[in-house]
Specification:
The complex is a heterotrimer of chains A (about 140), B (about 100) and C (about 100).
Chain A lengths: L1 H10 L1 E9 L8 E15 L1 H12 L2 H13 L21 H8 L5 E13 L2 E15 L7
Antiparallel strand pairs in A: 1-3, 2-4, 3-4
Helix pairs in contact in A: 2-3
Chain B lengths: L1 H9 L4 E9 L8 E12 L10 H10 L4 E15 L3 E13 L1
Antiparallel strand pairs in B: 1-3, 2-4, 3-4
Chain C lengths: L1 H12 L3 E8 L11 E13 L7 H13 L4 E13 L3 E13 L3
Antiparallel strand pairs in C: 1-3, 2-4, 3-4
Classes of the chains: A alpha+beta (about 140), B alpha+beta (about 100), C alpha+beta (about 100).
Chain lengths: ~140, ~100, ~100
């Protein structure tokens, strides 16, 4: 159990996988209003789940579970970024959200981040988009 | 086996993986399509510089000296010719030159 | 208990996806959402044990997107690169979404 807790704390890290920075435009009659959109889902690593089962139950039967999890991991072959997720479309509505926040379409300075919070067997797979919405400056009336 | 490997090396046939991709906004008036590529062979997984990547932008500018390059698709590929011994990283960019 | 864990692992191993990158382009020519129509394109590449020699599926996705909007600007293009994981094989996917602005 101590091994599991240690593994949990040592692996509870944030990983930055990708970052994209777009062009930043400035206009004298506009002000930049920042916004941030987060999309996330849970990722699961089958092999680490098997390791936890093996460590927690500590019986000969749980050893078999570990072998099974390694065999089942063959069904999840391929290039990986973070842990596998079950909803691949979790970040697809980011574009609609940007237009909801900034309906004028005057969006600039976009930074797209693909990151992960690792909790050993499960993870938080996150796509974060930050940017500025250019809005016209309101004229102050001189008294 | 040696024969197969030498053929692969001769024809630069290897397993290619897409590492990253980016696309800029695409204009209505497209103009002439231009493309640029830069690559680097990496031996024993050792690489000490990424300056080869700058050649892509320079090549695009050369091909479109008096216009704007828009709608650029940039791909970074990783090709494995011989595992561990010989890899290649290449960057390909395709865009439209609007003069 | 062991059978339950194994069944759970089998269920969890199916339909796994790896999301590699989500990139959003600039928003030139900075038009309103209502000025255009949202378009989407998708291209896939199936590979067995990674034996593929090109990444042309990306260019296909781009060409499909442009084909839906041949005479208009496409602004705010979201590009998603992901892989559907499988048994000894996987499918690379590119999805592109953008706002097609009608030419004046």
């Amino acid at each position: 159990m101590i091994k599991i807790i240690t593994l949990f704390f040592l692996s509870s890290c944030a990983y930055l996988h990708r970052i994209d920075i777009g062009e930043i435009e400035a206009r004298s009659t506009y002000v930049k209003v920042p916004f941030e959109i987060n999309a996330s889902t849970t990722g699961i690593d089958i092999q680490n789940v098997g390791t936890i089962v093996k460590e927690v139950y500590k019986s000969s039967a749980s050893q078999i579970s570990k072998h099974w999890s390694d065999a089942i991991a063959l069904f999840q072959m391929g290039p990986r970024t973070g842990f596998p997720v079950y909803r691949e479309t979790f970040a697809d509505n980011i574009l609609s959200k940007i237009y909801q926040i900034c309906p004028s379409g005057n969006v600039t300075g976009l930074v797209g981040v693909r990151e992960m919070n690792n909790y050993f067997a499960i993870s938080g797979e996150i796509v974060k988009v930050q940017g500025f919405c250019l809005k016209k400056k309101t004229k102050r009336k001189n008294k | 086996m040696k024969y197969v490997l030498s053929i692969c090396l001769l024809f630069q046939i290897g397993c290619s993986y897409l590492t990253s991709v980016s696309q800029t906004s695409i204009p209505a008036k497209k103009g002439k399509q231009i493309s640029a590529k830069a690559s680097k062979n990496i031996f024993f997984m050792l690489s000490f510089s990424n300056k080869f990547a700058d050649q892509v932008r320079e090549s695009l500018v050369e091909q479109c000296p008096n216009g704007s390059v828009k709608g650029i698709l940039t791909k970074q590929e990783h090709t494995i010719f011989v595992p561990i011994l010989l890899h290649q990283i290449s960057i390909k960019a395709t865009g439209y030159c609007h003069e | 208990m062991n059978k339950t864990i194994i069944m759970l692992l089998i269920i969890l191993s199916s339909c796994g996806h790896a999301i590699h990158q989500v990139q959003i382009s600039d928003f030139r020519p900075y038009e309103k959402y209502t000025a255009g129509k949202l378009i989407k394109s998708k291209a896939t590449q199936w590979t067995f044990l990674g034996f593929v020699t090109n990444t042309n599926f990306v260019d296909k996705a781009r060409a499909k997107l442009i084909a839906q909007c041949p005479n208009g600007d496409i602004q705010g293009i979201l590009t998603r690169h992901s892989t559907a994981l499988g048994f000894l094989s996987w499918t690379n996917k590119i999805i592109m979404k953008g706002l097609c602005l009608n030419s004046p």
